[in-house]
Amino acid sequence: MSGPVSQAEDACSESAPKVSVCICTLSRPHVAETIKSVLDQEGLDGCAFEIIVADDDPKLSAQRVVQEMAEKTSIPVRYVPCGARNVAVARNACLDAARGDWIAFIDDDERADPGWLASLLSAQKAYGADVVKGMVRGIYPAETPIWIKIADPFTRDYGPTGQTPKEMATGNVFFRRALAAPPHHRFDPAFGRTGGEDTDFFRRLTQMGARIVACREAVVDEVVPVERVSLVYLSGRARRLGQIEQRKQHLYLAGDYALGKRLALAVVAISLLWVHPLLRLADARLAYKTFAKFWYCVGMVEGATLARSDEMS
Length: 313
Description:
Number of domains: 2
Oligomer: single chain
Strand order of the largest sheet: 3-2-1-4-7-6-8-5
């Protein structure tokens, strides 16, 4: 492959009439709600699409619900058994099964707005993009502490439509399938149990020269379970991100951090810990940013000393 196409064709033209919407799932029965939200898309003006569900559960727990939904719609819904308990392997299984010229990934705990796919298609056409990143809106349970609701850590706004995002993930993203044609580009199974396979994937696409834009109108809702609005979960998530980033530094970028940088991260982390309780009272958003930064720094230090992150939950 010579590289991304600079002047992208209309993603819903006769030359590229199909989109493959991909969902990776692991023991989450509510994947049915995700599938239904994709089936209910509006404003596509005859643009055909298919749905591919890769089941990462060795027990293949999603098979029945997916096949039952497939029987009730004229839109192609295909079940792909994976069972590796490795999200990178499941994502690659989606890429292998996809027949569309364009791939859209949505997570199995997300629900797409009715105009989601049409907005992604429109942004791709308007900006000649190879990759379009949509917005994720957090939907919180009633038990969520007020300061966490205000901080809104599960909402990810990647910038105004047309702007280049500073970071990337697979929850709500749309990209040219040719960019991932084997053997050129795949999700790395080394990150498939910890997370980070998606940021690694899109970081490499950026290095290849892919044109990536945000689309604020393409919205999916992430329904946040009550156990995820606890300080234990949120600290673990930030810590894991720090560990993953350090692994990437070591594997793909500039090598491991020197001892001085590890110690500097530790000092930053300790300093942030002291001010967090006061910030919660004054500014919830800044308090959460400080809290997350502290645990991210802890994870970076752990990663630099070869500590392994927990499996993604």
